Amino acid sequence: MTARPAQIVDGSQPREKRGTLDASIPAAATGVVIVDLAQVRDNWRALAKRVAPAGCAAVVKADAYGLGAARVIPALYQAGCRNFFVATFGEAKAALGYAPGATVYVLDGLLPGSVAEMAELGARPVMTSLDEARAWAALAKADAPAPAAALHVDTGLNRLGMSEARLDALIADEALLERLDIALVMSHLACADDAQHPMNREQLETFQRLRAKLPKARASLAASDGLMLGKPYHFDLVRPGYAVYGGQATAQRICPVLPVVRVAARILQVEDVPVGARIGYSATYRATTQRRIATIAAGYADGVFRHASAGDGETGGFVAIRGALAPIVGRVSMDLITVDVTDIGDPAPQRGDMVDLVGPDLPLEAVGKGARSIGYEVLTRLGTRFHRHYIDRDH
Known about the structure:
The protein is an alpha/beta fold.
């Protein structure tokens, strides 16, 4: 039997506007990651409009959340984004190559011995300690302070960040402070995905008190979820990441964004299995009736969570086939998953067809929930074996 041509439905548009998208998938590709760059731009513009007159940056760490910094950062730059946040020096170097002249903040700050490299690169470290502040201040000249940098203050997350006591020590050291150009003071919310959590207000009040100690610096508190908490959380600059890529981390306040990514994988085999047959490694799943099982060319090497496995009496993750959800049964392995397609018909799935791992009927949040995780991890776990296809209706 001849396999039908692979067709992918455009999930970046509302349901009523979705049409068939020719993703130009190579015949030998076992899977495809489709990224809509125009929607990335639209999402950023929508967020920027939402928070105006505050500025809107974009967090592009972890290879733009797994979607490809080399393509995503230029798209954001074209949209007007001029402030980017990354985690590491290497990410900063790449970002400045993709967005020349932009301001790039390095969230991991200054590692010992990296001051000269950071200064030469022209990125702005996000300092979290007095040691970093002193090391950066050593770049100051007699007639000018050190290059601009940011300062991360802790407001209750107790992860990275300078405590209030250390901030006070920095401010009290006038000789040190005058050698620094602190262009941005920032912090990070712990519970912004829950709009009703009292810690949001507690951190807001703490941040207002701490940033007042550095009145000349711009201020930034909110990321994707935080910007939806309202204007008091916006300050001078917001730092969305997940939302730029179409993520909706909270059901309480929906960000004005649409999905940008679709992930699909190819069916390698479809076979009937009899009652009592075991499926997958460790024989954790047993067919209670005769079932039809599709083996799909995707596994944990491609970002499918092993926790998406379903065993006897357990539920796991799903794939989507023409709008219907089909459960993953048995263990997720490195290269393969097995899916129960018994109830999928008209026409029945067959070898060579593509099924959605992420898509309009299986959003990031649902995939994360099915694996007892979150959509952020779904994005950043995407493997490199699948064909990458970028679509851009504006260019």
